[in-house]
Amino acid sequence: MRNKRLLIIHTGGTISMSEDENGKVSPTPHNPLLHNLERLNHPAQLSQENLFNLPSPHINLSHWLKIKARVEQAINLEKFDGVVITHGTDTLEETAYFLDLALTLHVNTPVTITGALRSSNELGSDGLLNLQNAIVVALSEQSRGRGVLVAMNDEIHHAKFVTKTHTTNVATFQTPTLGPCGLITKSGVLYFQHLTEYERYPVEHITKSNIQLIKAYAGMDSFLLEQLAQYGCDGVVIEALGAGNLPPSCLAGIEALQCANIPIVLVSRAFNGITQNLYDYPGGGKQLKQQGIIFTSGLNGQKARIKLLVLLNQKQPFSTLLDYFNR
Ligand SMILES: NC(=O)C[C@H](N)C(=O)O
């Protein structure tokens, strides 16, 4: 049997950076990862390329579309058996989830994404180990059909729920409420969770991309919401309080957005748990839901923003977004 062919697409981030003598970390003209692959232990035939060399706070929608196109070409046309993407960790979860929703793949070929918290020449650098993790996951037959997977620190997480939880700790990537969906062990991968549904909404062109993300706080007023209603945007995601409640002082802003036909998606600013329409008081979840605000189950704000982006840019627009946010 031939060895599996994997493509590694580098996009930048700390995993491709180096530290200087003053302790400052920055991108290097030559990606240090490119020359280190022989140190890894795997049975695959590897190809690699630098698509970008960007810190992940520089990554935006146009980069997501380029990564998506490259992955689709690699899998659908060049018939790679798996794709590994290296990426900065700050926005890794967003790139992962965009790809998870929007990739058009003809087969269930694994796509994994990884990064590092310590640059290539730092003591305890985690980049090579994480790359090895991502390769092992991409090579596993068990990874097929699970959507885009984040492999780091010997854990596997679904793109949908994983989030960066610590600024610098190597164990930063976690899946709140559920935990990882699998582990990477010395003898291979071990999965113990499946999503109930793997969603895919292929996107070709993005025309509606002005989707704003706002965090609620005690005493929040209507200022920002009214500004958005007045100037116009394609959608608003609000990180609400607790199980999905808002201060009554911002309800005029909600009404203004609804009068302007701007869809509003509600997530919780709480780290764990899901939003629920529990409370029946002004600004309480029950009343917000009755007013037509879309509640999500378990997505954080930045992920809900991506889901709204992808759903609003389908060829056939959905008459009701709500059904898709319940998945
Ligand atoms: N650890 C990292 O990769 C953080 C870096 N600022 C980035 O996202 O590019």
Automatic annotation (TrEMBL):
Catalytic residues identified in the record: T14, T14 (o-isoaspartyl threonine intermediate), T89
Domain L-asparaginase N-terminal residues, every copy: 5-194
UniProt entry keywords in alphabetical sequence: Hydrolase
GO biological process, one term: asparagine metabolic process
Residues annotated as domain Asparaginase/glutaminase C-terminal: 210-325
A Pfam family reported for this protein in Swiss-Prot or TrEMBL: Asparaginase
Signal peptide: none
Keyword Hydrolase: yes
UniProt key word Plastid: no
An MF annotation (GO) of this entry: asparaginase activity
Residues given in the record as substrate binding sites: S56, T89, D90
PROSITE patterns, A to Z: ASN_GLN_ASE_1, ASN_GLN_ASE_2, ASN_GLN_ASE_3
Family stated for the protein in its record: Belongs to the asparaginase 1 family.
PANTHER family linked to this entry: 60 KDA LYSOPHOSPHOLIPASE, L-ASPARAGINASE
Protein name (Swiss-Prot/TrEMBL): L-asparaginase
UniProt source species: Lonepinella koalarum
